[in-house]
Amino acid sequence: MSRIIYLVSFLLLAVSSGVFAEPHADAALEATNKAVLHGKSGHVSLLVEYAQTALEQAKQGAAVAKDEAKIHMDAAVKSLDETIQHGKTGHVAIATKSAEAAVTHLQEGNK
């Protein structure tokens, strides 16, 4: 009986682990969209602020993502890192393009 319980528990965990990435990816996508909006408006400090929020969520999503979703979440993390670095140096246009790339990866990773 205990073997069945362990087996069922393991199967439920294995099936549900991919689901955990979605809330983080959704939160990261929302924050990244706000970063893009502020970047297009030239508000570099807000772009960086939202990109940092998105980065935290994207890292959490990447930690539990699998397969192709993991590839896209990792790419989104990289793009958000670039967004923050360019934003901190005042390169708003480049930071915005990096944030737009992150949006694409977050959308692809959350299908």
Query: What percent of residues are in strands?
Result: under 5%
**Radius of gyration (Å):** 17 Å
Distance between the termini: 37 Å
> Could you tell me the number of beta strands?
0
CATH superfamily: IL-4 antagonist (De novo design) like domain
- Write down the overall geometry: elongated
CATH class: Mainly Alpha
Number of helical segments with 4 or more residues: 5
Characterize the main sheet: none
Series of secondary-structure elements, N-terminal to C-terminal: HHHHH
Low-confidence stretches: 11-20
Mean pLDDT: 88
CATH topology: Four Helix Bundle (Hemerythrin (Met), subunit A)
The CATH level-2 architecture is identified as: Up-down Bundle
Q: Considering DSSP H and I runs of 4 or more, what fraction of the residues is helical?
A: over 70%
As for the number of domains, it is 1
